[in-house]
From TrEMBL:
One of its GO terms (cellular component) is cytoplasm. Residues 155-285 form the GST C-terminal domain. The lineage of its organism: Bacteria, Bacillati, Actinomycetota, Actinomycetes, Kitasatosporales. The active site is at 50 (nucleophile), 181 (proton donor/acceptor). CDD domains: GST_C_Omega_like. This is Putative glutathione S-transferase. It comes from Streptomyces zhaozhouensis. The keyword Transferase applies. Keywords: Transferase.
C-alpha cells in the first residue's frame, strides 16, 4: 500500500494503473532466492488499513504463525517519507529499529524509485527488505511455511482446488479488489463508469455463486475467501462513498452481507480488522478525493456480529482435523 493506495500504483491525470511488485524474492523451504523459511528470522510489516496487507494478517493468524513471523504495524497515516512506526515507543519499530519502512527498502536497493508498499517482509538480522509481493506472500505462508504452522492449521490452498482458486481469485482481483480503485481514482466519466460496471457485475456474479454455497471454492475457507473478504469488509466504510461504488451497500446485498459476516465472525478474520485505521487512512491520505480530510463518523458497525445463518448451506470454516486459531496475542489485540 503506497501513499495513495494499496500495492504499487500510479496516479495522475492518466488512467489508474497498478504496477507489479518490484521485490519478488520468495521465502521457501529450499531457500532458492537466498531466503529459507526460518522461525524468528523475518518480520511482517503491515498497515491494518490496507486490504492487501490484511490478506497476510489473516493468513498468519489462521496458520498460527505469530511466534514464527513477528509483526510490525505502521501508522495508518503516512507522510512524504513513507509508512511510519509512530505507534511504537520512540516512534521506532522495536525489532527493526527503524522509523520509516523506506529504510528497509533503501537497505535492499539504494534510491529505489518506486512506492514503499505493504505488506513487506524484512530480514531481521540485516534489516533488508525481502519481498513486497503481496499475492505470493500468502501463498507461500500456506505452502512453504508448513513446518511452522500451528497444530490444526487449515490448508488454505489445497492442491486439488488450486486451479479453481486461482481462476476465481484472478476475477476477484481484476473486477473487485482492483476494480474499486479503478473507480475511485478514475479521472474521467467513461473510465469511472467502466470500472463501476465491472465492480457490480462481478459482485452480482459472486452473490449468485454464494447463494447456494457457504464458501467460494470447496466446503471450507480458502485463499479465495481471504482475497474477497478484505475488499468486502471495507466496502461500506470506504468504497461505497469514498470510491463512488454506490449502486448499493454491502449491507443491501443479503447474500454478500451474510457471507462477509460469517467470515468476520470466524477467528482470524474479524479480529484483524481495525475500522478506525481503515477510515483514517482512506479519508485523510487520499486528499485528491477528500481534500477536507474529514473522516465520516459512520457507518454503524453493530451489525457485524449479528447471526448470519450461513451454516445452513453446509460446509464448515475448517476441514476435519483443522481447528480455529486461538485468541490473538495480547500485543496484537485491536481495541
Amino acid at each position: 500500500m503506497t501513499g495513495l493506495g494499496e500495492g504499487n500504483t500510479e496516479y495522475g491525470r492518466k488512467k489508474f494503473k497498478r504496477s507489479r511488485s518490484h521485490f519478488t524474492d520468495r521465502i521457501t523451504v529450499a531457500g532458492e532466492d537466498g531466503w529459507p523459511v526460518e522461525a524468528g528470522r523475518y518480520r511482517l510489516v503491515v498497515s491494518r488499513a490496507c486490504p492487501w496487507a490484511s490478506r497476510a494478517l489473516i493468513s498468519r493468524r489462521l496458520l498460527g504463525l505469530e511466534s514464527a513471523l513477528s509483526l510490525g504495524v505502521v501508522d495508518p497515516i503516512q507522510d512524504d517519507r513513507s509508512w511510519r512506526f509512530t505507534l511504537d515507543p520512540d516512534e521506532r519499530d522495536p525489532v527493526l529499529g527503524i522509523r520509516f519502512l523506506h529504510e528497509a527498502y533503501d537497505a535492499r536497493e539504494t534510491e529505489y524509485p518506486g512506492g514503499v508498499s505493504v505488506p513487506a517482509i524484512v530480514d531481521v538480522p540485516t534489516g533488508v527488505l525481502v519481498t513486497n509481493d503481496y499475492p505470493q506472500i500468502t501463498l507461500d505462508l500456506a505452502t512453504e511455511w508448513t513446518s511452522l504452522h500451528r497444530p490444526g492449521a487449515p490448508d488454505l490452498y489445497p492442491e486439488r482446488l488450486r486451479d479453481e482458486i486461482d481462476e476465481i481469485a484472478e476475477e476477484i482481483f481484476r473486477d473487485v479488489n482492483n476494480g474499486v480503485y479503478r473507480a475511485g481514482f478514475a479521472t474521467d466519466q467513461d473510465e469511472y463508469e467502466a470500472a463501476y460496471a465491472d465492480v457490480f457485475h462481478r459482485l452480482d456474479r459472486l452473490s449468485d455463486r454464494l447463494a447456494e454455497r457457504r464458501y467460494l471454492v470447496g466446503d471450507h475457507i480458502t485463499e479465495a475467501d481471504i482475497r474477497l473478504f478484505t475488499t468486502l469488509v471495507r466496502f461500506d466504510a470506504v468504497y461505497h462513498g469514498h470510491f463512488k461504488c454506490n449502486r448499493n451497500k454491502l449491507t443491501e446485498d443479503p447474500v454478500l452481507w451474510a457471507y462477509t459476516r460469517d467470515l468476520y465472525q470466524t477467528p482470524g478474520f474479524g479480529d484483524t480488522v481495525d475500522f478506525d485505521h481503515i477510515k483514517q487512512h482512506y479519508y485523510r491520505v487520499h486528499t485528491g478525493i477528500n481534500p477536507t480530510g474529514v473522516v465520516p463518523a459512520g457507518p454503524d458497525l453493530s451489525g457485524w456480529t449479528t447471526p448470519h445463518h450461513r451454516e445452513e448451506l453446509g460446509g464448515t470454516p475448517f476441514a476435519p482435523g483443522a481447528t480455529p486459531p486461538g485468541p490473538p496475542p495480547a500485543e496484537e489485540t485491536i481495541v
